[in-house]
Amino acid sequence: MRAIGLLLLPALLATLNSCNNTNANSQHIVIACPASSVTSFTSNNIYCWKDNYDSKNAIINRIPCPEGYKRVEAKEGSFANWLRFLPLKIGNPDVHLYNGELKKYQSGHAAVLDIDVGNKDLQQCADAVMRMRAEYLYSKKDFENLHFNFTSGNTVGFNKWSSGYRTVIKGNEVSWVLSALKDDSYKTFKGYMNVIFSYCGTSSLSKELKPVALKKIEIGDVFIFGGFPGHAVLVVDMCENEKTGDQLFLIQQSYMPAQDIHLLKNFNNAAFSPWYSINFEGDLKTPEWTFSKDQLMGW
Q1: CA torsion angle for 232, 151, 155, 290 (degrees, to 10)?
Q2: Residues near 245 by beta carbon (within 8 Å), at least 6 away in sequence
Q3: Strand, coil or helix: what is 52?
Q4: What is the DSSP letter of 161?
Q5: What residues are paired with 252 via a beta bridge?
Q6: What pLDDT does 33 receive?
Q7: Element (H, E) at 129
Q8: What angle do CA 135, 137, 142 make, to 5 degrees?
Q9: What averages of pLDDT result for each successive group of 10 residues across the chain (299 residues)?
Q10: Maximal C-alpha separation, the chain
Q11: How many CA atoms lie within 13 A of 121 on its CB side?
Q12: Residues 6+ apart with CB under 8 A from 154
């Protein structure tokens, strides 16, 4: 994650077109993985950046479970279910940076999410985590819970932002001024998120999240090291072995510079890749970062 020392970057606004929480926890009940002979899973989830969403390219329909494993249940409308149905780009294309250039390291990803990265170096690691959480809450119109803390500690919520207030930053001081019309469109949301990306990071996000014991891991949890730089990856799906109880998880990341969000391969166990077992020994080793077990956190 980029080193943003408190509040040093100017507020940046972005534009896109316009696009409605219940953060229900996933239950560890299992559902079958899709196979070629099985009808693909469908969903009523909303992905506002996609005007032609097709669930056949969703994670749940594209990433099969290892033999003997089945996906844990994720309640319809929950963050876990929303993440599981995230759309993937067809095949496994290269990861591109925000400026269109190819990322130098192309060996660590198993799939690329079908979501924009923007044209500025903003949507890096913690930003990709916050983007997913914010997009879900925005899709549910749960503006009350759509908020993040700047590195300075100030809470900046979309509810106030969409009411026309904007942040004014002087040094490490943050104040609000009413300077825009009330507008909760997707264009306004994207402008809000660019400001969040500019003034939040792994350090601030790690202070917002709550520690989670590895044995209680759920879809939507985050492995995060808060620092300058730090790193964060998001758990986007889980499955379970009905006989042994062993649980596996999928993780996604963006990185530095800002780049396509992608699912990570598991170089520690080729038989499970891209899935990771919660029973990993020592630290969690991902292609570009290593996390300790106590760095798992939840919302």
Answers
A1: 10
A2: none
A3: coil
A4: H
A5: 234, 263
A6: 57
A7: helix 125-139
A8: 145
A9: 39 35 38 54 96 96 97 97 98 98 98 98 98 98 98 96 96 94 98 98 98 98 96 98 96 98 97 96 97 98
A10: 60
A11: 10
A12: 167, 174
